[in-house]
Structure formats: structure tokens, C-alpha cells
């Protein structure tokens, strides 16, 4: 997701009065835009409107191409440091055996260590619909088997034919 920001630069600034910040970052004060543009040209720099919603708008004298380069560098660094959290799903059954639960627990722990959220679900069939409390118990046993390495975002609840529970990695 790329952030697009458009700054008004030099002659594109049509405001009558602006609040000016010089190249060193010092507040110069409120002045007519044409006068601020003249100061920027004298310094061989650009006049850039950095806060258009303020009254009066805030403009700064700076090298615009260098500013754009720095912004692109920051955006690239932010994208690199961003972690993408995926939602993984593990399906259980109401009649799951101990060995199968161990395999599913191991898989769930692997997902959680990668930093992903996990949706645990049980699909009830036939007569199982009338005994949803058994499915909730299976879910609670499954959560207990994770040994505190997960946090329940959503407790096991029966919704129609499904019992679902949401887990996220525990903070150390």
C-alpha cells in the first residue's frame, strides 16, 4: 500500500498569507506567499506547503527533491519492518483422538511461533448439533494443550453448524 502525498511547491501555492519556517527549522512568522517565495528563491531552495489545513497554511523552505527522496526512503524502511499477520485455520472434529490432537497442537504451535493468528473450528454433523457442549470441551482441551503459548481472542462458541475459537500468539 503506497502512500501518495502531494505537496504544493513554489508557484502552486496560491494562498495569500502563509506561516513560514526557514531552512534551519526556525519559525519566521506569518507573511505574504510571494515574499516567502522570494526568500526561497534567494536561498536557491523550494517553498513547500507542509500543512495545508492549518490557518494560515504552514510552508517550509527546503530542497524538495531531497525531501521526496527522504520520504521514499522512510516509506521503504517502514514496508520492510512491517509484519504481515495471516489467519491460519485448524479443523478438529468432535470425536478426535489423542494422537490426532497432538498433531494438530504441534501444527498450531508452529503457526503461532510464526506470529500468525489461528482459527480453530469444528464442523458438527447430524446428531452432533444437539451436543455442541462436547465440541466446546474438545476446544478447551485443545487450548489447554497449547501450554500458555496462545491467547484466546474469542472463546469457543457454537454458531450454527460450527464451533469456532480464535487464538493469537502469547506475548512473552
Structure described in brief:
The protein is an alpha/beta fold and 172 residues long. 33% of the residues lie in helices and 31% in strands.
What do you see in this structure?
This protein is α/β, with parallel strands linked by helices and 172 residues long. It contains four helices and eight strands, in the order ββαββαβαβαββ. It has a four-stranded mixed β-sheet with strand order 2-1-4-3. A four-stranded mixed β-sheet has the order 5-6-8-7, with helices on one face. The longest helix has 18 residues. It starts with 16 loop residues before the first strand and ends with a strand.
The biggest beta sheet is recorded as: 4 strands, mixed
Percent of residues in helical segments?
Answer: 25-40%
Per DSSP E runs of 2 or more residues, the count of β-strands stands at: 8
Q: Which of globular, elongated, flat, extended, rod-shaped describes the shape? A: rod-shaped
- β-sheet strand percentage: 25-35%
Strand order of the largest sheet: 2-1-4-3
What is the assembly state of the chains in this entry?
Answer: single chain
Class by SSE composition: alpha/beta
Q: State the order of secondary-structure elements, H for helix, E for strand.
A: EEHEEHEHEHEE
Mean model confidence by pLDDT: 87
Query: End-to-end distance, in Å?
Result: 30 Å
- Uncertain regions spanning at least 5 consecutive residues: none
What's the alpha carbon Rg, rounded to whole Å?
29 Å
Helix count, per DSSP? 4
Topology overview:
Blueprint: E1 17-21, E2 27-32, H1 33-42, E3 46-51, E4 58-62, H2 64-81, E5 87-92, H3 98-113, E6 117-123, H4 132-144, E7 150-159, E8 162-169
Parallel strand pairs: 1-4, 5-6
Antiparallel strand pairs: 1-2, 3-4, 6-8, 7-8
